[in-house]
Every structure is written in structure tokens, then in C-alpha cells.
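Lab notebook: predicted structure, single chain.

Context: the supervisor wants predicted structures on file for every construct in the current expression panel, including those that have not yet been purified. This is the next one on the list. No modifications to the sequence; it matches the entry in the shared construct table.
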Amino acid sequence: MIKHIHDFPSFETADSITLIMSVRPLEKEPFLRFLAGKFRFPDYFGHNWDSVNDCLAPALTALKKKNVTLIFPVIPLEIPRQWKTFRDILAQTRDELAALGITLTVALVDPPKGD
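Prediction complete. Output recorded below exactly as produced.
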């Protein structure tokens, strides 16, 4: 059982984990609180995008899995510009994890039109 992540519906094997990120579309601040709480970001988390960028890869690395999948049933942010910022962070996190031999996959069940 995962002790690091709480309240995520998940599917887990020895090398892989899929986390369903059940969150309705939020504004930036509530979404950052959601991430901080679910991934148990450290106390120094600054509740801004730079802090998400600094804390997400270590939180996913702590899962000790070779393959991590995050599934978002809906776009988690109300403002498209904020969603783009988070997507950029996810891409950078994917690259950081790849350097450690970890594959990060992010899936949107209902992607935005024209994106």
C-alpha cells in the first residue's frame, strides 16, 4: 500500500503506478493546495508554480516506481494559461524523471478542444 499518496484511486504493480487525479477544475491557488496535500510537498513549498516545479519530481520519485501515470478525468485548472503552465511543469518533470530511468505518462480523459 502506498503511504506517501493519500486518497488517490490507484492501480499498482511492482514497477508501475497509475494515479487518478480526481479534481474538478479549480483556480490556481486551490489547485496548488490540492497538489501540495496529495503529494505531501515539504513544508518549504511556496504555493507557486516554481515550487511545484521543484517539488513534483521528488514526490513522484519517492513512489519508487519505474512507470508513473497520472490520469486527469478533466482539465484541473479553470484558466487555460494556468493549465499551459502546469503542462510545461509536467513536461519538465517528465524529462527529470526520464534521466532517473522513470517514465511519467500524463493522460487527459477529456482533453480541451483544439489543444
